Amino acid sequence: MSCTECGRCQDVCPAYATGKALSPKLLIMGMRDQLLSGATTPIVPNAVTDDVVWDCVTCGACMRECPVGIEHVDHIIDLRRNLVMVESRFPEEAGADAARRGSILESLGQTPGRPAPNGPTASREGVEAGEPAPDVLFWVGCAPAFDERARKAAVSTAKLMQMAGVDFAILGPREACTGDPARRMGDEFTYQRLAGQNVATLNETGMKRIVTTCPHCFNTIGSEYPDFGGRYEVVHSHGVPGRARSRGQARADAQRADDHVSRPRATSRDTTTCAHSRASWWMPWQSDRDAPKSRAATFCCGAGGARIGWRKSAAGRSTRSRVREAAATGAESARVWRAPSAR
User: Fold this and answer.
1) Which of 255, 281, 307 is a domain's end point?
2) Alpha-carbon dihedral 257, 198, 98, 14, rounded to 10 degrees
3) What is the domain count for the chain?
4) Whole-angstrom Cα distance, residue 91 to residue 306?
5) How far apart (Å, rounded) are the C-alpha atoms in residues 306 and 140?
6) Which helix (H) or strand (E) holds 138?
7) Domain range for residue 211?
8) How many Å apart are CA 340 and CA 320, to the nearest integer?
9) How confident is the model at residue 323 (pLDDT cuts 50, 70, 90)?
10) DSSP labels for 191-255?
11) What tens digit of pLDDT does each residue of 252-265 get?
């Protein structure tokens, strides 16, 4: 009801900017108009269409810009929960992606989040209750089990921690999906089941410090698991190369939010970084220029909101837009990807 119709949310929305149906401004106005009309028909598809609900990548840019504190993403996730859990209605793309990944909506947690054969090596694998806990748990995530490039990143991260002399372990088969895709898709039941399962496992092992390469796992474990009794120090792997240069200092200190964007930039500019990490852990950027949308005002790559496996052209518009912006900075790795982005 407090919407001023200023349009700031719409201006920064990656879905709206790439031609999708979603406008955060019109979403809020449509819901408000239906409320004021006294209509008792469902919000979807009467106030807003299905496409509007599913176009959101849940990046939160709209909420960051809103001058009156409207929580657009929370409303959208609530609408998805009703569609998925009450009406059993979701896009065909979501169903296809669920089938590819072992069912996002039904049994996502049954796919162990462990790497493919020849994946990351650790000081030990499979920390059990009662064993002395190592310094660090490497939360591998599910991507290395499916994607060769993600597997290489996981292996490189593990090797960097070995070089730094870090005592770390991985859970192996006991590591399940964090539940992030399920929550963003509106399947809150599956998310809470997975979150409870993972928190119980982590608490049994006594692990308190976790390193992960996945931004979704980073956010879910660090920001959302405390609601389920899981309080851990979660560190993104972009901080590992710097710590590898000062062996044994892998323990994370409390960091300002800005460090999440400044630390990887410092790493990519540092020519003293070990050859292995520059070769395969981090993209060898050759430009210090940022893309026009960066840091706190960044632009989603298109994989947010559980849309990472969606294949339709609309789902890829944000990705292509982001790649073009990266190529315009003159970065070497961006030039490698320029040809595929033009498809």
Assistant:
1) 281
2) -10
3) 3
4) 12
5) 18
6) strand 136-139
7) 107-281
8) 9
9) confident
10) HHHHHHHHHHHHHHHT--EEEES-HHHHHIIIIIGGGGT---EEEEGGGHHHHHHSTT--PPPP-
11) 433 444 456 666 66
